[in-house]
Amino acid sequence: MSITPIDARLDLVLKRELAVPVNLVWRGLTEPELVKQWFCPKPWQTTECRIDLRPGGEFYTNMQGPNGEGHAGASCFLEIVTQERLVWTSSLLPGYRPKPPLAADSGSCENIAFACVITLKETAGGTAYTAHVMHSTPDQMKAHEEMGFYEGWGTTITQLEELLKQK
Q1: What is the pTM of this model?
Q2: Residue 158 burial by Cβ neighbours in a 10 Å radius (0-12, 13-18, 19+)
Q3: What is the pLDDT of residues 115-145, one digit of tens each?
Q4: Which residues of 118-153 are buried (b: 16+ CB within 10 A; e: fewer)?
Q5: Cα 166 to Cα 7: distance, rounded to the nearest angstrom
Q6: In 3D, which of 49, 1, 15, 39 has the Cα closest to residue 159?
Q7: Is 161 exposed, middle or buried (0-12, 13-18, 19+ CB in 10 A)?
Q8: Residues 28-58, buried b or exposed e (16+ Cβ, 10 A)?
């Protein structure tokens, strides 16, 4: 699959050098019991995770906040290249089924549709990690950024790295 080049008007990109090997990062991204340990910024918790690691397969998480707030969502995997690339979209449900639209005033992050391309490359010190998150409109990209994309995704990748250093 050819990945679209980065478009600064539509895309958010987070790059990190992780001091753990690619095979561990891949496990952390694809094994539900590991995902549950790092996927949302603490004190939130991922209480449920389902991964059907195949094109059209499900990526589902249920996250719970410290005050009882919650967010559950299912996405669809588009491409899997073991230990290199993981692509999914929040626009589709498993089996490539389109998600029904939410009410515009629902206030949910589910209103932000995106495709995410995670790429991993082995480096001398571990793994180069890149998350390229593509949106359909500048407003969608801005809304995702204002929700705390860089802080939230950055925090969770740090949590992933810390978890994997213990493995």
Answers
A1: 0.91
A2: middle
A3: 999 999 999 999 999 999 999 999 999 999 9
A4: bbbeeeeebbbbebbbbbeeeebbeebeeeebeeeb
A5: 36
A6: 39
A7: buried
A8: bbbebebbbbbbbbeebbbeebebeeeeebb
